[in-house]
Amino acid sequence: MMLDFVTFGLYLLLMFGIGMYFYFRTNNVSDFILGGRQLGPIPSAISAGASDMSGWLLMGLPASALVGGMTAFWICFGLFLGTFLNWQLIAPRLREESELLDDSLTVPTFLERKLHDPTGFLRIALSIAILFFFTFYTSSGFVAGGKLFNSLFGMDYHTAIVAGAAVVLTYTFLGGYLAVSWTDVVQGLLMITAIAIVPVLAIQELGGVEATFNRLHEISPNHLNIFQKPDGTAMNALTIASLMAWGLGYFGQPHILARFMGIRDVKSVTSAKWIATAWSGIVMTLSVGVGLIGFVYFYDAPLADSEQVFIQMIKVLTHPLITGLFLAAVMAAIMSTADSQLLVASAALTSDLLGKYLTPKQSLLLSRITVGAIAMIALILAWDENSKVLDIVSYAWAGLGASCGVVMLIALWWKKATWHGAIAGALTGAVVTVIWNKLKGGIFELYELLPAFILAALAMFVVSLFTQQDTSEYTENR
């Protein structure tokens, strides 16, 4: 057990070391939020992928596959397409235009300048949406961290989530964007190593690949069917569309969009795109494999919490020295997203809502204070120990995709988009997400992101068409 703690502790020390290193290289709010736009394609791609997947990759998705079998394929397929399209459609234009438009540091500020909103309402609306949904998103990371610390150290859940939050908060507070990005690179590589090795160890113990899948087919043949749930219920078109709709959320995730804005140059986007897309496909395939193999491995002694399947496999199958390292990989998945979310949510308040009232030094100080304040609110939201990582992530993902995502996609690709339409789209997306999530039964079982995205896009198109104005003064920036 002591070796578990040693390797886990060494990993955390490494993260703190990176945070301290970049603390002394962070001189202003631009460095803190976007790292001075100096990150290359490889760290940008891996950092985007690691911050994207979060604890959901190693806890939520394996649980989905364990319970629902290969129907989890549809979520993965939607996310795989979403990753590619995000890098293809959004990244090049956002990187170029965000710098041209007065070196915009955040998504709300960029869209305000892109659509020439003289009122500031669009920036405020998007900033509030980001703060609201990202606080929930961050709480999902604390829930995941609480489950990990509870499993590893036997901590009470509430003590565990405070400990996990403290780790993330410390180095995000210190180093900002560069610390977050470079720790994400380390964490991304650690995540893919762990999720590749542990299923192999489980398969070996179960008697090999053929024996494992024969056993899976014997106890639950529908676990391998992408068109049927394990209980034999057919996957209808509505259910498949609901799962694939996850891919739409990518266009509005500010912590991922920040990687596009912070990459070194537009030329770097192409190579980063292929690295990020490949990384996404590989880790999601491995994650589903963990769930399917875990279903067989723990079939005779079912887990009380399906979201702990990967954690329990690590503890049972690996040497204590490796156990600590691989459990650090789970912590890595949690940290890599929570840190990015805290950073972007902080930017939404500091840069987008209060930026014009503050000096550069005041902005940097307030950014760090805001990181702590948002973390405290997220902790309160994570306090319920029955919370599920997947449920919280899906809600926040939908809200951001339907508000920020719709506006970003249309603003970059439709010259007739107006700031009036963008406000209508952002508000529609956010409100429909919140309301749809609370309603149950029938059509309301559809994942809220799909109807919210469609209605938000319609609102933006219609209102934009009714609020056309003379664009001759700024057409070249559109």
TrEMBL record:
Annotated InterPro entries: Na/Glc_symporter_sf, Na/Pro_symporter, Na/solute_symporter, Sodium:Solute_Symporter
Keyword tags: Amino-acid transport, Cell inner membrane, Cell membrane, Ion transport, Membrane, Sodium, Sodium transport, Symport, Transmembrane, Transmembrane helix, Transport
Function comment: Catalyzes the sodium-dependent uptake of extracellular L-proline.
Catalytic activity of the protein: L-proline(in) + Na(+)(in) = L-proline(out) + Na(+)(out)
Domain of life: Bacteria
Keyword Chaperone among UniProt keywords: no
Organism: Suttonella ornithocola
Membrane topology value: Multi-pass membrane protein
Membrane-spanning parts: 5-24, 63-85, 120-137, 157-178, 185-203, 234-253, 274-298, 310-335, 365-383, 395-413, 419-437, 449-467
Gene Ontology biological-process entries: proline transport
Stated name of the protein: Sodium/proline symporter
Protein family per UniProt: Belongs to the sodium:solute symporter (SSF) (TC 2.A.21) family.
Gene Ontology CC annotation, any one: plasma membrane
Pfam families linked: SSF
PANTHER family assigned: SODIUM/PROLINE SYMPORTER-RELATED, SODIUM_PROLINE SYMPORTER
GO molecular function terms listed in the Swiss-Prot or TrEMBL record: L-proline transmembrane transporter activity; proline:sodium symporter activity; sodium ion binding
Protein location: Cell inner membrane; Cell membrane
